[in-house]
């Protein structure tokens, strides 16, 4: 699992936010498009792409995409 691939897969969940706005340091909950539906999409993406379970608590405890990646990497 690599951070650049994770950022790319993460950004694919967003329809209205340009992929260039995403980096490991992106504070994803501050994005205008962020919603609980997108949180569910991120959970599904992690399961499908990485076979790892992301919980709502994991998302709540993450400020940046890097934070979420670090949590996932430890699972």
Automatic annotation (TrEMBL):
SUPFAM superfamilies membership: ACP-like (SSF47336)
Domain of life assignment: Bacteria
InterPro entries linked to this entry: ACP-like_sf
Protein name: Acyl carrier protein
Species for this entry: Chryseobacterium arachidis
């Amino acid at each position: 699992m690599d951070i650049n691939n994770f950022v790319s897969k993460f950004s694919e969940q967003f329809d209205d936010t340009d992929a260039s706005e995403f980096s490991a340091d992106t504070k994803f909950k501050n994005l205008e498009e962020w919603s609980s539906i997108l949180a569910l999409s991120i959970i599904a993406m992690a399961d499908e792409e990485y076979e790892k379970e992301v919980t709502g608590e994991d998302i709540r405890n993450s400020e940046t995409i890097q934070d979420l990646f670090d949590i996932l990497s430890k699972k």
